[in-house]
Amino acid sequence: MGGLALLWGSTFLWIELALQALSPVQVTLARCLLGTGTLLVLCLKSGQRLPRERAAWGRVFVAAFWCNALPFAMFSIGQQTVDSGVAGVLNATTPLWSLLVGIAIGTERGVRPVRFGGLLLGFGGVVLIFAPWQGAGILSWGALAIVAAAASYAIGFTYMGRTLVGRGYATISLSAAQLVAASALTALSLPAGGLAPVHLNRASLIAVVILGIFATGITFHLTYRIIADEGATNAATVGYLLPVVSVGLGAVVLHEPFSLRVAAGMVIVLVGVGMTRQKKPAPAASAHRPSALTTRGQN
User: Fold this and answer.
1) Of 81, 104, 95, nearest to 125 (Cα)?
2) 47, 48, 155, 185 — which has fewest CB within 10 A?
3) pLDDT (tens digit, 9 = 90+) per residue, 253-283?
4) In the chain, what is the straight-line distance between the N-terminal and C-terminal CA atoms, in Å?
5) Tens of pLDDT along 76-101?
6) Helix-helix angle 24-46:171-187, to 10 degrees
7) How many CA atoms does the CB half-sphere of 173 hold within 13 Å?
8) How far apart are CA 179 and CA 33, in angstroms?
9) Distance (Å, rounded) from C-alpha 227 to C-alpha 239?
């Protein structure tokens, strides 16, 4: 659990280091290409093939835009002015946006007051982090870009769960195909700053390689596994650890400042996210039904 949280939470550190030598478009394309190569190798080793149907690729490209190309670019743009630790905290709002998306498309019906209260509380924590009433607040286009990335993830995850997962494709094939599509989409943006000269140093090169192979390729495949196999991992617990990891790495490695206001906002956001995950209790009658495990045991 700690290793998984470190893998995901360190993404913002690697982006910060990569931006020292590359433009946002170059960082986005590099992580997509390296992640694609990693997953294609894993596909080949596992004997899996990419989807062949044209309709499937159409859905893959839509998912790649919302879940990869757009948020990856927004994080790279945003972290030019926003610290990596704060970026990780703002990324933790993705479950809040997921609930909003669910309400908007009708998959979340009859939202309990505690979940709606968590939604309001979570976004209240974001406002506290931004502190628009203070001159020292972090409200900026960069911060808004990161919030937009978190919202884009929510749209992408919802779309993936509704149109790609459970359709007979292996998760490694879907994740590899989606990064292929994200690479193609990002390549179209190369004229917008992606053709600038590159001056890589050793630290930036290492950061780009880790960002692409581990924080993009491996992590994205794990994300697909979580979406495809609900509850098989403690995804919620990892989600709580991500901002803690990003803040800790930012403070220790990059010596980023971390104010009490941002810390309070982080706690409020995480409490709000926890409240939104409160599901309606199962009917009491279900407790008297024999479980599948019991039935198998009797057979």
Assistant:
1) 95
2) 47
3) 999 887 888 889 889 988 888 888 776 665 5
4) 35
5) 999 999 999 989 888 888 888 888 88
6) 150
7) 17
8) 8
9) 14
Name residue 255's amino acid: H
Cα distances (angstroms) measured from residue 187 to each of 27, 140, 206: 11, 27, 22
- Separation of alpha carbons 18 and 74, rounded Å: 15
Question: Rounded to two decimals, what is the model's pTM?
Answer: 0.84
CA distance 64 to 111: 29
Q: Mind spelling out the 3-state secondary structure of the chain?
A: CHHHHHHHHCHHHHHHHHCCCCCHHHHHHHHHHHHHHHHHHHHHHHCCCCCCCHHHHHHHHHHHHHHHHHHHHHHHHHCCCCCHHHHHHHHCCHHHHHHHHHHHHCCCCCCCHHHHHHHHHHHHHHHHHHCCCCCCCCCCHHHHHHHHHHHHHHHHHHHHHHHCCCCCCCHHHHHHHHHHHHHHHHHCCCCCCCCCCCCCCHHHHHHHHHHHHHHHHHHHHHHHHHHHCCCCCCHHHHHHHHHHHHHHHHHHHCCCCCCHHHHHHHHHHHHHHHHHCCCCCCCHHHHHCCCHHHHHHHC
Residue where the block lists tokens 């709606």: 116
Asked whether 211 and 11 are in contact (CB, 8 A), the reply is yes
